[in-house]
Write a structure and sequence with these properties.
Elements: E1 2-4, H1 10-26, H2 39-47, E2 51-56, E3 59-67, E4 86-94, H3 103-117, E5 122-128, H4 132-140, E6 144-149, E7 159-165
Parallel strand pairs: 4-5
Antiparallel strand pairs: 1-2, 2-3, 3-4, 5-7, 6-7
Helix pairs in contact: 1-2
Length: 169
Amino acid sequence: MIRKANIEDLDAVKKVAETCALHLSNQGVFQWNESYPSRAVFKNDIKQGSLYVLEIEGIVSGCMMFSEEKDTLYNSIEWLTPDSSNLYIHRLAIHPEHQKKGWAKKLMDFAEDYAIKNGNFSIRLDTFSQNKRNNRFYQARGFARLGDVYFIKQSTFPFHCYEKVLQPS
């Protein structure tokens, strides 16, 4: 089940993110660290009503944040659609025990359905350049890679920006 997160989910969401960060670092992918995503970031996502959780057998096992708020860091990217009605996805995570079972696809389907119902022209996101699996995942879903941004607190490597056009702008 996918549902909007509430404050009672905060500890579980943070635990999923920490477990994912450790899992990635064990594979040599240093995309998330002790400072990101922080508890405060997730708490803010919940307060703004933009964090969604995936429950498997009643346990929070994944999460995704999406909103129409554009990070100013994205201003350097030549997007495919105008900056007027776009959905931005951040912090997609599936607990390692449940990875490779189609759950990330279900979260992305949920976000895409939400965007279409709400009249968004496109979905935009970034993913770590060193996370080859994520890059393949988004490309297979029809996202176009458009450029790079840097989150210096996370890594010296770039994050690739992607956009998927959902309807004409």
